[in-house]
């Protein structure tokens, strides 16, 4: 019989399928049975349809063969055809699997009750009321509400994707800067809430809900990347996860709930069915690109620690605290080892079984850490420590996944998960955890660190951290949470244009950035930033407000974190005035510091700071005067393993090319050049080069030195600016990883400047490792004098490391009260101050400091022990020459203070800095040069003493160092010591005037000598150089360097005229000539740079200068 179009098929038991199936798999004609009464009708239309279907099928197969024919026609290999076929089959397989999973999910969603009843062998009726799950309640009434508001939620999602997600995607990849959403439809399948679990909140004013959500929908979203004329789409999506909803604060007025916070505790599971051109991304190995990108955008918006806050009442208090609350605590994860891992490496096509190259991924929410790879080991030992912030307990989980490192795809070895609530209850959890999905166990030590709102126990925490060996990062003593609220009256850009301000917050080498707020000088950010602090007493928060192009700085702020230690509850909530900005430019921020304290009876503090493994069970000091219980007095210091491991990084800023022109004249009509200079920032120190006027290809040739450690993650920040009268213009920036330089030892590269159209910078970086031997000191001093540039400070020859451990028997205040001592260590212009120990005559500082030493023979370490409010308690002066004759250049013992009462225990060690890439081969001997011949003679003391590899000989030389020469010079007028050298890399002739000895005294008083140099045949001021003048001496020391820019062939044609002169009288311009030296540069080996003594000759002409 025939059916009308509006009539459905009549149900019967024979027509019911035995399993759920998608009715779209077969056409409707396949389900309809032929009508027996229709046999008399002509079959023409049916036969025509079958013929058309056959022709269509034949045509499709013919189209498949066309690529094979074309490949043969052009003479391509059959491999191209096979590769295309494999590509198509891989895409088809992934596409079919996604469609099959979507069909099954839709069928389950449409007929959930019927399928559940069939699974439980029940008839078609509802489940009884007594069927439930523990702690999780069904919420069908809530699903009905969601289904009704679903279309309106689609309108909100369209706005959310366009205004929030799209900018996040554009910022995640420079190739997606034109990414936009062109169509957003959530479809007819609403999100379902599988179950609801209610937790008891930490406070009475708080309600916690966990919603287990599942979305299998027919969503359709189209996107476009205009830059590449690429259109893509999403048709069908699955999203499964646990959404936590927090209702707080509860108030005594309608609507009862002040605000609603929502976030995912863990990353939700996402499966997307791509359409359009993005079907190419369904090929295995490529689909994860887009999925990961979108998941990163979702995580940046709704996965802890990020959350969505919806205020329900106006003027809600502590909105910043609700939007970004303080963490519940910190978990210190010690990833120690693993054992019994499965072997994944195979050799000779699987015939030989190898081991594995394991590494571990540690996750908590969005915080992820990766350990190092242990090669060829089934029982690896990592011994690494990580610190993670915990925001929600219960809910968040620590996840550890172990993989085998391979060149192509890493093999999975197993995972473990642990709820953070177990760590909170245990305090310290040290155990072997089995790996799921594989074999073996992983050894973790988990420590719960509480957050303290006062600094009372900070010293105790710092003392403990010094005795803990931690890698890759040292342990933290505190955390800092910065709530960046808003800015006010920021300066405008050129042309009175509104800026697009963003903020960079930095603590040492960690920098975080806020979002950019466009076209306003009163931006509102409402963002939170979190930092780990190793030593809050010495660290600083650096805040830079910039335009979104990073080229224009709108203001800056440097805040010592020690200010928070004295603030109530370690909190500052106020306006902060910006420097280098407008007069009323300021930021409103709330800074909250919390001390990390391990409160566990299983952990005690080491007796001797810096000695890991030594434990103090009683933590009680013995009674004063008890010789039985008192520990023995140490003879030597016990520094930690990091002491003395510093390096010196020598940064040589050479030149730049193709800088952009920033200067404008006549209102911008005339384009000028730039006045560039370079700013360097590394390890908390900043350096700045001199300004080169009107040059787009400047040459600075300056050298800077900084003490660095091997802590990973450090970077050298370089910025180039154009010097202006009002505000310096940005010319570009670049960064260099410090790890790269420390590993290679030397780096000489042209670095491309970023954030500007053009420009590059030439840098030369060298790592100098201190050597505990004085054998090469003379060579180092000679090389430093040769490569010294005029614009740079004197180069360091050594590194002094001082470990200040303790003091004893310090004088008491007013004879009875113990002082509160601290110590200052000074070398030259550099001073280090220790912390103050309250009320004790035997303080334990346990601090170290490092100093750059430029003149090891003459400099000294000055130590001063002072009491807080009581003045000086004792002094110590340690000449560095004593270290040069000590074993391993190190002194480690008790030193008596000059006051006669009190001693200090310290370790001072010197390391010589030998450059391996100076381009200079220094000579180890000095020569005396007369007018006719050169004769070798030992060094006569007028300058610093020379050292040799023998310590006794060095000690003898140091003790015989006097101000007068040991033997008479060869010439009657005295001698002058010069180094003449041609620096080929800089194309400069260099002359160093070291000093003179045994000069002639014509009158009653000694002369006031100086040295004048003239490069002949030119006698103008352009080639004349002159040293400073020394008062009343026959043996002056100058150690001054002079340069002339000229090619080598021209230098060989010149003659150097050296005159030693003295002032005749105070009121006269006449100069007395004490002697001259005439050097023909063609007769000198300019490539060696040898320091020589030259005999002074008489000259009848006593000209004036």
TrEMBL record:
It comes from the Eukaryota. Residues 312-433, 454-580, 627-751, 777-899, 972-1094 form the C2 domain. Residues 135-313 form the SMP-LTD domain. Residues 1-47, 608-641, 924-950 are annotated as: Disordered. The keyword Membrane applies. Interacts with ESYT2 and ESYT3. Interacts with ADGRD1; inhibiting the G-protein-coupled receptor activity of ADGRD1. Interaction with ADGRD1 is abolished when cytosolic calcium increases, relieving ADGRD1 G-protein-coupled receptor activity. Interacts (phosphorylated form) with SLC2A4. This is Extended synaptotagmin-1. The lineage of its organism: Eukaryota, Metazoa, Chordata, Craniata, Vertebrata. The gene is ESYT1.
């Amino acid at each position: 019989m025939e059916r009308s179009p509006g009539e459905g098929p009549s149900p019967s038991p024979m027509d019911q399928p035995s399993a759920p199936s998608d009715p779209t798999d077969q056409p409707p004609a396949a389900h309809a049975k032929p009508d027996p009464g229709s046999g008399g009708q002509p079959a023409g239309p049916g036969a025509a349809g079958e013929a058309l279907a056959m022709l269509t099928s034949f045509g499709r197969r013919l189209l498949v063969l066309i690529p094979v024919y074309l490949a043969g026609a052009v003479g391509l290999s059959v491999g191209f055809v096979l590769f295309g076929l494999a590509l198509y089959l891989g895409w088809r397989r992934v596409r079919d699997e996604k469609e099959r999973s979507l069909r099954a999910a839709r069928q389950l969603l449409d007929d959930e009750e019927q399928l559940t009843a069939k699974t439980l062998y029940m008839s078609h009726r509802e489940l009884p009321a007594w069927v439930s799950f523990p702690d999780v309640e069904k919420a069908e009434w809530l699903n009905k509400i969601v289904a009704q508001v679903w279309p309106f939620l689609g309108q909100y999602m369209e706005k959310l994707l366009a205004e929030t997600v799209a900018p996040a995607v554009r910022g995640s990849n420079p190739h997606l800067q034109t990414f936009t959403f062109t169509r957003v439809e959530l479809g007819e399948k609403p999100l379902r809430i599988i179950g609801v679990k209610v937790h008891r909140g930490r406070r009475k004013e708080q309600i916690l809900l966990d919603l287990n959500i599942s979305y299998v929908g027919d969503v359709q979203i189209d996107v476009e990347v205009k830059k590449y004329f690429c259109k893509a789409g999403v048709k069908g999506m699955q999203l499964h996860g646990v959404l936590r909803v927090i209702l707080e604060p509860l108030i005594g007025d309608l609507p009862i709930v002040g605000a609603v916070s929502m976030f995912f505790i863990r990353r939700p599971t996402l499966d997307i069915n791509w359409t359009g051109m993005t079907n190419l991304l369904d090929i295995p190995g490529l689909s994860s690109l887009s999925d990961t990108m979108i998941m990163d955008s979702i995580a940046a918006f709704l996965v802890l620690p990020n959350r969505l806050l919806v205020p329900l009442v106006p003027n809600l208090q502590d909105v910043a605290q609700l939007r970004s609350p303080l963490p519940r605590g910190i978990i210190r994860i010690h990833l120690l080892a693993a054992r019994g891992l499965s072997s994944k490496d195979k050799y000779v096509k699987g015939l030989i079984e190898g081991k594995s190259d394991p590494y571990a991924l540690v996750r908590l929410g969005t915080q992820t850490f990766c350990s190092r790879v242990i090669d060829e080991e089934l029982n690896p030992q990592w011994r690494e420590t990580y610190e993670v912030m915990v925001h929600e307990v219960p809910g968040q989980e620590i996840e550890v996944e172990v993989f085998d490192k391979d060149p192509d795809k890493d093999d999975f070895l197993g995972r473990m998960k642990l709820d953070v609530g177990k760590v909170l209850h245990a305090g310290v959890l040290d155990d072997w955890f089995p790996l799921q999905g594989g074999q073996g166990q992983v050894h973790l030590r988990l420590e719960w660190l509480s957050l303290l709102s006062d600094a009372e126990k900070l010293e105790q925490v710092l003392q403990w951290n010094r005795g803990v060996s931690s890698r890759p990062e040292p342990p933290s003593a505190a955390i800092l949470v910065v709530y960046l609220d808003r800015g006010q009256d920021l300066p405008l850009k050129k042309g009175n244009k509104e800026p697009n301000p963003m903020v960079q917050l930095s603590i040492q080498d960690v920098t975080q950035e806020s979002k950019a707020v466009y076209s306003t000088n009163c931006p509102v950010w409402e963002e939170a930033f979190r930092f780990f602090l190793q030593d809050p007493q010495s660290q600083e928060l650096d805040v830079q407000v910039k335009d979104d192009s990073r080229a224009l700085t709108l203001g800056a702020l440097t805040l010592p974190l020690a200010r928070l230690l004295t603030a109530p509850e370690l909190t500052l909530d106020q306006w902060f005035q910006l420097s280098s900005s407008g007069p009323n430019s300021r930021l409103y921020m709330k800074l909250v510091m919390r001390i990390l304290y391990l409160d566990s009876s299983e952990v005690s503090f080491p007796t001797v700071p810096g000695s890991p493994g030594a434990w103090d069970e009683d933590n009680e000091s013995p009674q004063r005067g008890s010789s039985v219980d008192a520990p023995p007095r140490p003879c030597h210091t016990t520094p930690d393993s990091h002491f003395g491991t510093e390096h010196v990084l020598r940064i040589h800023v050479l030149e730049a090319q193709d800088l952009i022109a920033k200067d404008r004249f006549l209102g911008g009509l005339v384009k000028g050049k730039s006045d560039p200079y370079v700013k360097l920032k590394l390890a908390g120190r900043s350096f700045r080069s001199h300004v080169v006027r009107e040059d787009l290809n400047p040459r600075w040739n300056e050298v800077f030195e900084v003490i660095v450690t091997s802590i990973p993650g450090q970077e050298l920040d370089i910025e180039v600016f154009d010097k202006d009268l009002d505000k310096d213009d940005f010319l570009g920036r670049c960064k260099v990883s410090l790890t790269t330089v420390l590993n290679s030892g030397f780096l000489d590269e042209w670095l491309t400047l970023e954030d500007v159209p053009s420009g590059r910078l030439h840098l030369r970086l060298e790592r100098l490792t201190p050597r505990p031997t004085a054998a090469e000191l003379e060579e180092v001093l000679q090389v430093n004098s040769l490569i010294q540039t005029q614009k740079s400070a004197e180069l360091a020859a050594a590194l002094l490391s001082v470990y200040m451990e303790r003091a004893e028997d310090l004088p008491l205040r007013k004879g009875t009260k113990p002082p509160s001592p601290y110590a200052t260590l000074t070398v030259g212009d550099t001073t280090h101050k220790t912390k103050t120990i309250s009320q004790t005559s035997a303080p334990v500082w346990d601090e170290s400091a490092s100093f750059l030493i430029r003149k090891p023979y003459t400099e000294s370490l000055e130590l001063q022990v002072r009491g807080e409010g009581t003045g000086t308690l004792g002094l110590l002066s340690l000449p560095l020459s004593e270290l040069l004759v000590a074993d391993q250049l190190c002194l480690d013992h008790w030193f008596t203070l000059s006051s006669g009462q009190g001693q200090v225990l310290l370790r001072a060690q010197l390391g010589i800095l030998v450059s391996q890439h100076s381009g200079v081969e220094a000579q180890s001997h000095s020569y005396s040069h007369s007018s006719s011949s050169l004769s070798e003679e030992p060094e006569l003391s007028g300058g610093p003493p020379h050292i040799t590899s023998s310590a006794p000989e060095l000690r003898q030389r140091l003790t015989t160092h006097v101000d007068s020469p040991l033997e008479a010079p060869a010439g009657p007028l005295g001698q002058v010591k010069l180094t003449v050298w041609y620096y080929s890399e800089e194309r400069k002739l260099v002359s160093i005037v070291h000093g003179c000895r045994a000069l002639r005294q014509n009158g009653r008083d000694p002369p006031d000598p100086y040295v004048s140099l003239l490069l002949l045949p030119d006698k103008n001021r352009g080639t004349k150089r002159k040293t400073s003048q020394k008062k009343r001496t026959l043996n002056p020391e100058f150690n001054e360097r002079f340069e002339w820019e000229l090619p080598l062939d021209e230098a060989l044609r010149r003659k150097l005229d050296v005159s030693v002169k003295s002032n005749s009288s105070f009121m006269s311009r006449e100069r007395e000539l004490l002697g001259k030296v005439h050097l023909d540069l063609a007769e000198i080996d300019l490539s060696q740079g040898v320091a020589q003594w030259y005999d002074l000759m008489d000259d009848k002409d006593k000209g004036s200068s």
